[in-house]
Amino acid sequence: MIDLYYWPTPNGHKITIFLEETGLVYRIMPVDIAKGDQFKPDFLAISPNNRMPAIVDHAPADGGAEIALFESGAILLYLAEKTGRLLPDDMRGRLRVLQWLFWQVGGLGPMAGQNHHFGKYAPARIPYAIDRYNKETARLYGVLDRELAKGPFIAGEYSIADIACYPWIVPHHDQGQDLDDFPRVKRWFESIRSRPAVTRAYAAGAPYERRRPDFDALEREILFGQGAARPAEK
Question: Does 232 reside within a domain?
């Protein structure tokens, strides 16, 4: 059994997609990031960066004590190695997947995240920031589009590289991107969206989806006002 500390964000969806693709038994432990669940001591013991997702694997492959792990890229790599799935065994194939996994966690995710913030959540519209992150997101879509000229998936066969990137493309409209401008990304996106495991993963997150379009003042402070001290400690 794997406990998945989760909220339905792109990084959260990465892990449910992997778990559904491989059939690993898991249970969702909701972490409502707008209410501050990420600052609870029990969660911080698992995820010291106060971010979800995180997992606790109660049956690790080495047969030892349970393993707690945070950071979505590290979780995907761990689960791929645990199951022997969605990551090639050969050195060259493995490196090809890992470079694109790291591309996502170091580039696509952070830049699209800033795009979301300044385009949708910032209290004041800052044209320079909106334009800056729209253009950088477009640049990254272009990088992905060119890579997908080589085959149907990012790194050869369907892998954790695709699982990592897909949820960050789902909100392309909010990022100011038109998939018609990136035909290979569009083809890839539609092929992954149609996978039964992806459908199940998003259905698993549906009960936790936010019903209100915006955040109140306290929620904004919790989500966007974090410094070295937790909001409640200021």
Answer: no
